[in-house]
Design a protein that fits this description.
Layout (H helix, E strand, L loop, with lengths): L1 E4 L14 E4 L2 E7 L14 H18 L7 E8 L5 H8 L10 E6 L9 E8 L2
Parallel strand pairs: 4-5
Antiparallel strand pairs: 1-2, 2-3, 3-6, 4-6
Helix pairs in contact: 1-2
Length: 127
């Protein structure tokens, strides 16, 4: 059985998918981009600001499912320019303690939705 997770504190999906799906005790969080859920506008200006908004959106979806960053077992980071990875990683490291940090992969891609620079998805264990 699966349960759809939805929150107004993260951007609404921009396609035929949900913010997250809880299947048993495994939570699959769709890729989050730097959309501000209050305004619907993209957060721009720096890769740090963009990454910060991505992680705030991810946090909101996790919390809607009764989870948090310590529950995350895997993330996938998609970046438009691997040259910015160090700056993205510095912000990411503020959300994930090395003691319980998840497994992850980082992949450079040609493009992302709305032409953003970074997108992060996650898998978490809830309960």
């Amino acid at each position: 059985m699966k349960k759809i997770i939805q929150t107004e504190h993260a951007p609404a999906p921009i396609g035929p998918y949900n913010q997250a799906v809880l299947a048993g005790n495994t939570l699959y969080v769709s890729g989050q981009i730097a959309l501000d859920p209050a305004t619907g506008e993209l957060v721009q200006g720096s890769i740090e600001a963009e990454t910060e908004q991505v992680l705030k959106n991810l946090k909101a979806v996790l919390e809607a499912a009764g989870a948090g960053f310590p529950n995350v077992v895997k993330t996938s980071i998609f970046v438009k320019d691997m040259g910015q990875f160090g700056r993205i990683n510095a912000v990411y490291g503020q959300y994930f303690d090395p003691e319980w940090a998840p497994a992850r992969e980082t992949v450079e891609v040609a493009n992302l939705p709305k032409y953003v620079n970074v997108e992060i998805s996650a898998i978490a264990v809830v309960g």
